[in-house]
Amino acid sequence: MATSRYRCRACGNLTRFDVTSSRRTRAFHHYTVGGELTIEQEDVLSEVVEEVSCRWCGSAGAVEEFSESEV
Question: Is the pTM higher than 0.85?
Answer without folding.
Answer: no
